[in-house]
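DATA SHEET
Item: assembly model
Revision: 1
Owner: S.N.
Input lines:
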Amino acid sequence: MKTSFESDYNNGAHPLVLQHLVETNNTQSQSYGFDEWSEAARQKIRTACQCPDADIFFLVGGTQANATVIDGMLQTYQGVIAVQTAHINVHESGAVEASGHKVITLPSHGGKMDGKELEAYLKGFYADPTYEHMVIPGMVYITFPTELGSIYSAKEIEEILHVCRRYELKFFIDGARLGYGLASSECDFDLAWLAGHCDVFYIGGTKVGALCGEAVVFPAGNAPQHFMNIVKRHGALLAKSRLAGVQFDALFTDDLYFHIARHAIEKATALRDIFLRAGIPLRDSPTNQQFVELTNTQKDYLMDRILFETWEPIDADHMLCRFVTSWATTDEHLSALSKALKDIPS
Amino acid sequence: MKTSFESDYNNGAHPLVLQHLVETNNTQSQSYGFDEWSEAARQKIRTACQCPDADIFFLVGGTQANATVIDGMLQTYQGVIAVQTAHINVHESGAVEASGHKVITLPSHGGKMDGKELEAYLKGFYADPTYEHMVIPGMVYITFPTELGSIYSAKEIEEILHVCRRYELKFFIDGARLGYGLASSECDFDLAWLAGHCDVFYIGGTKVGALCGEAVVFPAGNAPQHFMNIVKRHGALLAKSRLAGVQFDALFTDDLYFHIARHAIEKATALRDIFLRAGIPLRDSPTNQQFVELTNTQKDYLMDRILFETWEPIDADHMLCRFVTSWATTDEHLSALSKALKDIPS
Amino acid sequence: MKTSFESDYNNGAHPLVLQHLVETNNTQSQSYGFDEWSEAARQKIRTACQCPDADIFFLVGGTQANATVIDGMLQTYQGVIAVQTAHINVHESGAVEASGHKVITLPSHGGKMDGKELEAYLKGFYADPTYEHMVIPGMVYITFPTELGSIYSAKEIEEILHVCRRYELKFFIDGARLGYGLASSECDFDLAWLAGHCDVFYIGGTKVGALCGEAVVFPAGNAPQHFMNIVKRHGALLAKSRLAGVQFDALFTDDLYFHIARHAIEKATALRDIFLRAGIPLRDSPTNQQFVELTNTQKDYLMDRILFETWEPIDADHMLCRFVTSWATTDEHLSALSKALKDIPS
Amino acid sequence: MKTSFESDYNNGAHPLVLQHLVETNNTQSQSYGFDEWSEAARQKIRTACQCPDADIFFLVGGTQANATVIDGMLQTYQGVIAVQTAHINVHESGAVEASGHKVITLPSHGGKMDGKELEAYLKGFYADPTYEHMVIPGMVYITFPTELGSIYSAKEIEEILHVCRRYELKFFIDGARLGYGLASSECDFDLAWLAGHCDVFYIGGTKVGALCGEAVVFPAGNAPQHFMNIVKRHGALLAKSRLAGVQFDALFTDDLYFHIARHAIEKATALRDIFLRAGIPLRDSPTNQQFVELTNTQKDYLMDRILFETWEPIDADHMLCRFVTSWATTDEHLSALSKALKDIPS
């Protein structure tokens, strides 16, 4: 079987997560979020976020978390602002619109939103005398790290937050790969800082060592009224909530979540080096996703040997390709890649 | 800790399901439904259903499965017919309406729909000259077994199916607890027969030994076009689809699914006997859910000793209470119940 | 052509309404609600309601007004409580559900909701430990007069309002035929009193002398934020808002609205007498809709001579039929009815 | 009072439309689309379109028509492709998203969609292996004339239609100002040709001489099943449908609709000349909307004398402004404009 760098969800659970599922399996528990492990995980996350009053809900996946949070925090008539390349705008099959909300798009800068462009948009919006005929913006959505592996600086996030406060917008950070962003050597803030600089965010589990699960955090205890009901209405309430609770309990014990993230970044850095040594250029990314520029010939050659995803055509002759690491990436995987690159055509 | 008969989702996974998760954990795989175990599970389910062409999708939970299937099979303007007590009408926080579809209700007969009442409703509907001002019925939804533990006979299902065909309605069977219905001694058909007598149904995993997961089956390969897209739009597509695939692969190996169901029914039958011997009446139910009629005094007395759910008040002095068994119910649990009933006030 | 008692929308505009359209036609104006007649009409309605701060919006039709108001005042996850026979539950093609809201039904008592049953429902709802899995009630909807021509007493409305306040529900009165209710000799309150006993209501124009138009009134200036945007989102904002503004300006000049209503009730009372003299029973209704119990033979006989609507079968041999009067009903119409009844079979 | 060129909906009905409302007012009629004038208007439109089998529905306004048609023709999970500047994308408060459908945007070329860009988008979409995670395109929406007054050539429309056929997309033409496009001297096709080159379009009445009303035409009798129900569900079914029927009956008698359009274009052409003679540049537009480039000083100067709309800032010093003509525009209006421009600062 070929070595795969296709994604960070092509593997099982981190062994310690799995072990916790095994060791708790025979205990009876409450359901629908009231099990003991969900409660323990919530406490550990509150501590990690330094948010003792945080409301925390465990949902199953990223699209579900995005759709539920956005619908839960917006008024029916409001839209959510995101960059053109945002996951909610491209790869969620219209889940946000399914709840009646428009995704209002701004330009993407390597996956990121520019605070000044956001402000200019809002200023222009409210200066337009016909704005009551337009979709009222109610929230700003960013991903951290972005779909392209880039990360925001603290200053960039502060700028966006400042605009949100000025225009009374909720600020939501999609952290499907949060660990990889925070563990990046280029990141100039930590989890507690992030929790203090938004209205809601989620800690992605699926892509960071769990089998499934995203922890939605309302840092100030500011979950919308009846949010559990909203979760249920979105088909996102687990009967056996222990499934998510146990996994997050493991992830937030002994810093496992960040241990996993650091491991993946270490392997991603090694992977970058392997490509660079082979004379193949990559886009900047300090996280576990690496975007490699291959000629179409190189792409076909490599695809015969290694599994990875094509991301998007660069031009008629070149393809941007994505290589992703995770807790499950080993030195053997990297060796297989090195070997495959050995005689790659230039 | 008190013995719990609260639900069939207050426990972990059946040991063989868990074991399969453990033994497959280190294998890399495709995602979003294309992993090898999902494919294997689909084949095994096709065989069990005697539907070689069936389209099968694994979703996470029951409400999600219901909302996705109903929205996927209806035209925007159509509604779904269900009995008053149906799960989609009562306990899904309006997930069906969230997609714009009305739940049109008929009377419940111990949780069941009456084929003749269905026909009378439809006949009256189309005889009403104002019917274009009403919600056009597009589907019939029943649960098997019902929320009250009762089951339909083959004849009753045939009657409903016959009406559906005559009025061009889709027929959807919610099988959140399907195993317990089919394994019941009173059931006069099997899985293959059921698959041949509806347009879509699902095989509940969450409540029958899995940690999560429902297998939605379109027996004739009749999934709506782009159903995967519809699943994604509902936030119901697992990135690590192996989580559901592995579990259903285990459940449909060596008849485990029905083994679990039979075990639970055996324990439920024993539980019935324990109550009857104590002189306490129960509603008829041949499945793993037992509905017990307690005086309020008895209820309070028993609640101090055993965990169970109150279902609904019968009158000012009596409460209908639910006791549920599962793969995890043991003889020790039953003994604890017997002991607790020993000196129960009459 | 046969005389028609089919509805109160089978005619044109009241002559004074039409005249105002003609005399204002050549004046240029603002649009989207800012025209001078809309503003004048709002002032006149505020005066009539004794609500100087009322927010008032003119929408085109009843279903549109209901769907827009309900969606505008509810949170996404909330439902609206109505009786089984309510227009929003039966005859609006699921317009409320189209915005994602469930219609929660209570029994109908001659078209009316019972305040005590409402309270019992809410008490039971919040006593149910699973209520977070159910649709949270957010509003009570009643029609005045009801679909069956009946009217609430002040005491009955106070009871419902009291329950709404206690359970923090919005109270919405659908006044598609408001004039006929208020002008009824049995009504023990007036427009100003009504405006003081609900959160929002509308004054129906379409069925009371206009070509189209319903005036939605938020008596305390309590329109939801951005309600104009909500109206636009529902496709309910008239570009040439003068169309509605001019008509309501006419209707609320010199008491025309109630003049029309009294005329129709006078004719309805005469119509009742005609049926009673012919020995044909009617349901109680003090408004402009009369519900007549005909044998099927009588119904067929009369349908050959007069236009009216069948409402619903009473039994195998009898049909409930609806006869409606309006500003356009004349003594000639009544004479034609008398004549048609002359030799009706018994 | 200042002369207004603000819009083509700042006036009443064309006198012949109004006259028809007056002369039919005292006739009783059927409702909900079954009145005699709606039927007559449908026949006249069928003749004008040379589509004897066309299904035709009269709705009240443009946003309502767009939302209802798009929702009625799309599957729940599909989106509609439009240019960035399209009315449905900018000025309908999210009415399309309110029904759950994403507006997928392409670049605007003076308000127009480019057939080649459309094809490239679709080719790229289906070449993307993740397209099942994206919104499936189901329809192409264009406006004729566009929001910027430009018009498509027959060749451009054929190109788009060709792509639609190839990718199985519905093709919808929003004709809120249809008459002005067809009556333009630059238009190289007529109404019948247009009707033969799309799946659905509407003939705008509100902006072309009526008080309200848009005639939605399915040229091949291809209205979706139960479209009347869909219309009702969108709150768009007029009880007194005569209001729309009578107006369209007048508009399609003796070519009135195109007479109105030609009149407005004649006045728009004169208005262009007035600006050009004053040395003020305009954007190209062969229809009744003219887009004038004013300095901010000129804009302020002119606004003190004449009513018009600012469209959007061109740069820090210039504003694009919109001047619109209609049936109600007179030579006196044009003289007032000339006079106002006399001493305008340069």
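QC remark: The mean pLDDT of chain C is 97.
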